[in-house]
Amino acid sequence: MTESRDAELFAAAEAIRAKAYAPYSKFHVGAAILADDGKVYSGCNIENAAYPQGNCAEASAIAAMIAGGAKKIRRIYVTGPGVAPVTPCGGCRQRIREFAETLDITVISHGVDGAPLETTLAALLPHSFGPEYLGK
Ligand code: THU
Prior knowledge:
Helix content: 25-40%
CATH class: Alpha Beta
Number of domains: 1
CATH superfamily: Cytidine Deaminase, domain 2
Order of helices and strands: HEEHEHEEH
Radius of gyration: 14 Å
Largest sheet: 5 strands, mixed
CATH architecture: 3-Layer(aba) Sandwich
Strand order of the largest sheet: 2-1-3-4-5
Shape: globular
CATH topology: Cytidine Deaminase, domain 2
Structural class: alpha+beta
Distance between the termini: 28 Å
Bound molecules: tetrahydrodeoxyuridine
């Protein structure tokens, strides 16, 4: 059961969040993916003095997953500061869409001083465009 791995995903997201490079926003984010190979891949946000060149934590985690040889996201857990759930930005919803095992994968967004919000990719990105539109 994927749910049973949420403690592991939370721990991985929090461990890598501590390494975030976010000197401008000071908003440190971690993301942990449970991939189709059963392994956990994680990433943090990496900002840049040229602001648009920054990477979100989700993008970093996807890069780690692909580099590690996995192909699909089975579940993803995002952690950040504060009480409000740290939900993926619009661009990252589309990035997750590219690699999601199904449209129904669970996305957990957690501002660690509050409660986690558990939702699905389909709810976060309805009527989405994806690889199958291009024959993939
Ligand atoms: N950020 C993420 O890494 N993921 C999210 O889900 C929300 C926002 C980062 C981008 C930027 O480095 C900082 O948080 C503030 O927006």
